[in-house]
Design brief:
The protein is α/β, with parallel strands linked by helices. It has one domain: Glutaredoxin. Helix content is 47%, strand content 12%. A hairpin with a 2-residue loop joins strand 6 and strand 7. Helix 4 runs antiparallel to helix 5. This is Protein disulfide isomerase FrnE. InterPro entries: DSBA-like_thioredoxin_dom (IPR001853), Thioredoxin-like_sf (IPR036249). It comes from Hymenobacter glaciei.
C-alpha cells in the first residue's frame, strides 16, 4: 500500500503530522506492506532569508501581524508539538529557503534513505537551530544519515535533483494541494493537515481493506492544521 506525503521542511505542522502518522503506522498490523513516499512542497519558493531576522519576525511579516503576534503563533505550535514528543526551539530556529533541502531528500531517496533524511532535516531545523539553507550544513547532515559528502555537495551544487523537486510541486498543483502536510493513500483517499493518529489509523485500515490497483479521483477525508504559502493557520 502506497502513502504519498507532500510537506515542507519549514512547516511546523508537517513535523507534527509526520509523528501522528508514524504513531498510527506503528500500530497498524500491515505496516510492513506500507510504502511511504515523501514529496517536495515549498511554502515560500522565493523566500530570501534576512541575516539576523528571527523566526518570530519572519512569521509575523508573512502573516502581516506584529512580532509579538508572531511569537504567540510560535508558542501555539510549540505546545502542539509537545503533544507528540517534539520540543520545538523557535528561539534558535534560523529562517531558510528549502529548495536545497528538498533536493537532499531526493538524493536520500535515491539511496534508500529518504525518511531518514527528511527526519534529520526536520530535527535540525526545529530542534537544533541549524541552518538548513546552507550548503555545508546540508552536506554535514547528509553524512549523518549515511550519504557521501562528496556526492551530496556535487548534487546540490549542480542541481541534480532540482527538476525532481519541481515535478513534485507540479504534481501537487495537479491534485489540488493547497496546504501541507497532505497525505494521499493509494491515489484514492486524501488527508489534509496534521490529523489525530486515530484518523490516520482509520484511513490505513479502510484503504487496506479496499486495496485495488485502480486510481480513482481523490476523496477528501479531513482537513486540519496545515501550512500554506501565506503561513500556518493557528
Amino acid at each position: 500500500m502506497k502513502v504519498e506525503i507532500w510537506s515542507d521542511v519549514v512547516c511546523p505542522f508537517c513535523y507534527i503530522g509526520k509523528r501522528k502518522f508514524e504513531n498510527a503506522l506503528k500500530d497498524f498490523a500491515h505496516r510492513d506492506e506500507v510504502e511511504v513516499l515523501w514529496h517536495s512542497f515549498e511554502l515560500t519558493p522565493d523566500f530570501e532569508p534576512i541575516p539576523g531576522e528571527s523566526i518570530h519576525e519572519s512569521l509575523a511579516k508573512k502573516k502581516g501581524v506584529s512580532a509579538e503576534e508572531g511569537r504567540k503563533m510560535s508558542d501555539y505550535m510549540t505546545t502542539a508539538a509537545k503533544e507528540v514528543g517534539l520540543d520545538y526551539q523557535f528561539d534558535k530556529t534560523i529562517p531558510a529557503n528549502t529548495f536545497l533541502a528538498h533536493q537532499l531528500i531526493h538524493l536520500g531517496a535515491h539511496h534508500g534513505r529518504q525518511d531518514a533524511t527528511k527526519e534529520r532535516l526536520l530535527a535540525a531545523y526545529y530542534l537544533e537551530g541549524q541552518n538548513i539553507g546552507d550548503l555545508d550544513t546540508l552536506v554535514k547532515l547528509g553524512t549523518e544519515v549515511g550519504l557521501e559528502a562528496a556526492e551530496s555537495r556535487a548534487a546540490l551544487t549542480a542541481g541534480t535533483y532540482a527538476e525532481a523537486v519541481r515535478l513534485d510541486e507540479y504534481h501537487a498543483q495537479q491534485i489540488g494541494v493547497r496546504g501541507v502536510p497532505f497525505f494521499v493513500f493509494e491515489d484514492k483517499y486524501a488527508v489534509s493537515g496534521a490529523q489525530p493518529s486515530e484518523l490516520f489509523a482509520e484511513v490505513l485500515e479502510k484503504v487496506y481493506d479496499e486495496f485495488k490497483p485502480t486510481k480513482p479521483a481523490l476523496t477528501m477525508v479531513a482537513n486540519g492544521d496545515a501550512c500554506g504559502p501565506e503561513g500556518c493557520e493557528v
